[in-house]
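Lecture notes, unit on protein representations.

Consider one protein chain, 784 amino acids long.
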Amino acid sequence: MTVCRQFVYSILGILLLSFCPSLSAASPLEKGRAIYKSQCLHCHGERGEGVADMYDEALYGDKSVEALAKVIARTMPEDKKRKCSPREAELVAQYIYDAFYSPEARLRFQPPRVELARLTNPQYVNTVADLFASFRHEQKLSPTNGLVGLYYNARNFNNEKKAFERVDAQVRFDFGEGGPSPDTNIISDKEFAIRWRGSIHVDRTGDYQFGVRTQNGVRLWVNNDRTALIDSWVSSGTVVREERATVHLLGGRSYPITVEYFKFKDKTASILLEWRPPHRVWEPIPTTALNPNRFPETIVVSTPFPPDDSSAGYERGVNISADWDQATTLAAVEAVSLLAEQWPQYIGSKLDEPKAQDKARAFLTTFVERAFRQPLSAEDKAQFVEKHLENATDGKSLEDGLKRGVLLALKSPRFLYPGLNNGAPAGYRVATRLSYALWDSMPDAELLSLAAAGRLQEGSLVQEQAARMLKNPRAKTKLHDFFHNWLSLEEAEDLSKDTTAYPDFNDQVVSDLRTSLELFVDEVAWSEASDYRQLLLADYIYVNDRLAPLYGAEVPTAGEFRKATFKAGERSGVITHPYLLAMLAYHKSTSPIHRGVFLTRNIIGRALKPPPMAIEFMDGRFDPAMTVREKVTELTKSDACMNCHSIINPLGFSLENFDAIGRFRTRENNKKVDTTGKYPTLEGKTVRLKNSRDVAEHAAKSPEAHRGFIQQLFHHTVKQPPAAYGAETLESLRQSFASNNYNIQKLLLEIAQRAALHELKPQPSPSHLQQAGAAGAPQPRKES
């Protein structure tokens, strides 16, 4: 049946092309369509959608017409000896490009729209934290770093025995057989107590391990004054013991911390407060993370959520499941339980005081308004406030009513779906979009105040507010998370190397390299120029006293990170940073394929389809005298592989000057390293590469690479595709990016402002929301 269909199509095409006078005078697109129907349709489908049992992959991509024509002339028709002539290939390429292949053509068939989405997992925990924090006193960081130390001339904290107070840079003391003061009349060296108080700032979200080392008594509280994280209020004589515990913290925030310590009749005394941040090793908590000003507790829910959907290449809140619905319930219950002993701090009085009901009503009304990011109607107040408090006649019933009201608000679709505020005044919609774009959280008091005044629709004021918000640590955390995704750092779970080949490469070096990379990226991104091109072209990396000898740099002062500049052309920004090079390598050798794929997708901005069949690189199959480049060339030499590897390989080979831990080299297996290659661009041109510097310079000036960077930043910022905000959005942002000298901060602000001022058309609610109604919880549905 299939053979007959192919035969009919072929004969039809020949007849049309040979005997139809009207077709001979047809336009190039009509001729291309005729050839496609006769030669290609039976395998690829009417609109390139693919045909089962023939070629079931859809025809789409980012090649230019010229590049498509070359592929078609070389390979099509696949089942015939005579391939398309160059002219036929050009006609077919132009037709399929305009009809369904190009991004523009696909937008015509399926124009994207701004999807109604729930809070992503990071947005949920940040919103809950900020929602409760909005009722607490806002603190500011002191210009001084360290913790306030209160020293007592006794083993307890009797104020009458308070000896002195000072700010200590760290909790890191070895008193030996003495005490905190050489004057024993002020404080005894036999018996004393110290309480350190203040705040600890974290830049990254994740699990933080805290530890104390002491032979004396110690207690530690982090973000919780009621239950100690570490409670070891006993002495152990002369044996120094370690106590450790873990707490989950959100990045871009400061948390209250308290350390209590005492010595009583012990021969010696010492204490060290240390931590292990995410992706780091244990170290004394640095002075820069400590502050004497004390911040209020942050409500951080720890309920596990199922992963967000990332099928589009970025995390977004579009998947709804029974597991997610249950997680929102458990998280809401957890948040309320964390308030159990703190109601007076939120409503302004104890629950059994005479005016407690009025204060509870005011609190709950404001809480629901902030949760929904818009004012409440009279009907809303009756549903979410009065219903729960009207019969509260004592402290117990008042607390129960508050709990029910908070739980209902946190389970409402109007909290879980920020896009459900289309009925709100325009200013509130703008405030919501702006805050989630820059902070992944709800609007703050200033944004809500401007929204209430009806002023936030003004473009200049939105620009002013975005600039203000960019200075907040939460914006820096979000941009840091973008670079984490852009550089694919989630792949860096295991950077261990062969200990025989790389004996000096250990966990401490890996931690230092990650710090080095983050220092570099932060310096570029948060400089005044904020020049994207310097991410690719800078000729330096940060090193400390451990990294410098390993990478051939001058050794700085112990514990200090300092810029190290290398020979011209040897280093090129993130492309040649040792952390990434080590991440994109095997345990014992380099991996041009992993490095090439990273450069193609992340730096050049080109899409790659998954290979039809993954082939494992097994080093033992090859002659040990071969270089890695020779092995990869042999492995990928088939035509099927070279469809993608003609792009991947030359980019990956450009980094062969760097070994598996990112050290510069010129020889491998006693052979000179070959880093040259020919990279085919989207436009069908060829870029000759001598080394990694050529890749960096190409990407720095390539509109293709700029669009790729902008699109990834847009996805991370807005959680929607750029084209949903207009077909011209991506190109318009690219032109603006260029005119602003590729300033990353300005690009981020422009993306956030465009999303904030984009007027959403009311979208039909998904069926699970329609069933639940505006006041109830969304009913779970199975994920497709």
